[in-house]
Amino acid sequence: MSNEVNYMQQRITINLNTDSKKTDKTTILEYCRSHGIAGIETPCGGKGTCGKCKVTVTKPYYKDVLACQTKICDGMEIIVGRKESTGTKEDSMVVLTNGGNVSEKFNEHVNEHVNRNVVLKEETANESEKVESNEDTLAACDIGTTTVVCYLIDKETGQIISTRSGANPQRSFGADVLSRIDAAARADDNDKANGGLQMMQTQIVSLLNGWISEMLTECGRTKVSRFSVAGNTVMCHLLMGISPEKLGKAPFMPDEYFGRKFNPLDIGLENCQTMIIFPAVSGFVGGDITAGMMETVNCNELTLYLDIGTNGEMALGKGDRYVCCATAAGPAFEGAQIELGMPAAKGAVDKVWLEGRRIKYSVIGNDRPVGLCGSGLIDALAVLLKAGIIDENGTILSGQELPILFRSYVFEVEAEEAAQSTEPSLAVHIAPGVYITQEDIRKLQLAKGAIAAGIEVLFKEYGCKPCDLDILTFAGGFGNYIDKASAAAIGLFPQELLDKVKEVGNAAGNGAVSAALSQEAWKRALEISKDMRYIELASYPHFNEMYVEHMNF
Q1: What span, in angstroms and rounded, lies between the C-alpha atoms of 475 and 496?
Q2: Which of 40, 39, 63 shows the shortest CA–CA distance to 51?
């Protein structure tokens, strides 16, 4: 089963007389964060630059305001969240979930390398102990920067018996890890409990507690014997209440690399006996990559593993030798920095293509288009390039340079909408009311340039060429939904690798399930983390030149 989280509409009335912690200097965003009120998107982390944290104030005035810039006052009434919802799946973010059983790849691994019954039997208590401790119930979780997925597993059968998935509530502190590192470092000296680190830890622990409790009740169970967690290094620091502040400055060394057992009660995680967290390789190549590679990479095939989500993490290698890196791609490909960008939710344009002389599109939920999600953005770039609407430098053409068939698609954006741009304020219609601006294209070029340059560095450091590759693996929700031909067309990865692409779904989540079930799988993850050599791109010779070169199409 799957139960996705929606940000439903909430009406809030502020009473400063009964809330002594807050003053009229507190912003709406700060108030909602401290009271656990979800539904406010702040990709910029509350700096007032993205314009996406709009809420409706109904008293003492009626208008839409930016939550991060508007101070609260006594008696203020606010509407937060969606104005309508059909309660269908399309209302939620699209999250990759597992099926009813452990992945086929894990079963192949077990059949070939592990006596599964022995592995499971080793850790099974006798019948009297089993009834008391529920040793037959396991759990696994993939904590992503954007989304979180949690599974309840029957240990005897290996089946996933319940699933929960939804948006990471920490998104109110920013869309990317750097925003959350910055937020975690800002603590209120007079109110430590409401500092960024403490609030973000409370948010994720509360979410997991709620989901685990729901799933246990749903399946008639009472306790989880082992909880396996995969996540990037920053997300795992926030889960454990460890400051990730060191990851925000050179040399980007984390305080904790994980790869061991933890006591769930230390962080207030209930109904779990023990917790294991996948090992990180560096500050920006975390346990989610280790988990995904353990689950999907064949030791005998040279594999390029790409996890292109809010962060761009990648690894290349086979056997006992891998190189890895993380790119500063930012969340642009998930729509966070794009004027009309949005998550993969109802109303998002998710596919764009050319049909004759017309730009065609599809919308999640078959509803009115309201924005572009990541897969739609990749397609849109490829279409604009193919149609000759943008040139190889990513510049929107105009006048006589623009193909006559597509001149009606290009228009000039109003001055206030292009205030941040230093280029001509042009934009291209994609769907009714939905367009992509020149500034949007520049941000997408920065993201794809960083990823493409990172791939080039990995091939160089491993001592091989793209033609030597056996498999190009795309992991994670975004990587699975994008059209690979569009991605190759814009230069996200070398065109010659297109026929080697393999999609592996939520590899990190699958890996977490495997490690919950098998000690052998957990040991393999630990081995992979030790076999990986991390390359810091910020100090890599000539990386900036490579980056700039790959920004073009």
Answers
A1: 19
A2: 40
CA pseudo-torsion sign 98, 99, 101, 104: negative
List C-alpha distances in Å: 387 to 125, 358, 437: 64, 10, 16
The Cα 424–Cα 314 span in angstroms is: 35
Name 174's Cβ contacts closer than 8 Å, sequence gap at least 6.
42, 43, 44, 45, 46, 180, 182, 183
Measured CA to CA, the distance from residue 428 to residue 357 in angstroms comes to: 14
CB 388 within 8 A of CB 402: yes
Return the structure tokens found at 41.
């998107």
Digit-coded pLDDT (tens) for 450-501: 999 999 999 999 999 999 999 999 997 777 788 999 999 999 999 999 999 9
- What is the Cα–Cα distance from 493 to 501, expressed in whole angstroms? 10
| Residue 129: burial class (beta carbons within 10 Å; 0-12, 13-18, 19+) | exposed
String of DSSP letters for 521-537: HHHHHHHHHHHEEE--G
CA distance 241 to 199: 9
SS3 at position 147: strand
CA distance 287 to 294: 10
* Alpha-carbon distance values, 234 to 177, 332, 418, 545 (Å): 7, 19, 33, 28
* Cα–Cα distance measured from residue 46 to residue 348, given in angstroms and rounded to the nearest whole number: 23
Cβ atoms within 10 Å of 75's Cβ, excluding its own: 12
Nearest by Cα to 237 from 249, 252, 255: 255
Residue with tokens 């294991």: 276
User: Which amino acid, residue 426?
Assistant: L
pLDDT of residue 337: 80
Rounded (10°) angle between helices 519-531 and 507-517: 130
Token couple for 339: 């004027």
- Per residue in 416-443, pLDDT (tens digit) is 544 455 556 899 999 999 999 999 999 9
Residues 151 and 140: their CA atoms lie apart, in Å, by 5
* 315 DSSP β-pair partners: 305, 324
Secondary structure of 213-275 in HEC code, one letter for each residue: HHHHHHCCCCCEEEEEEEECHHHHHHHHCCCCHHHHCCCCCCCCCCCEEECHHHHCCCCEEEE
Alpha helices in 256-372 (DSSP H): 287-296
DSSP assigned state of 538? G
Report the side by side order of strands in the sheet with 501-503.
501-503, 471-475, 303-308, 312-318, 321-327, 532-534
Task: Determine contact, residues 273/224, Cβ cutoff 8 Å.
Answer: yes
Q: Cα separation of 472 and 119, whole Å?
A: 31
Q: At what angle do helices 438-462 and 543-551 cross, to 10 degrees?
A: 130
Q: How confident is the model at residue 415 (pLDDT cuts 50, 70, 90)?
A: low
End-to-end CA, the chain: 42
Q: pLDDT of 249-302, one tens digit each? A: 888 899 999 999 999 999 999 999 999 999 999 999 999 999 999 999 988 999
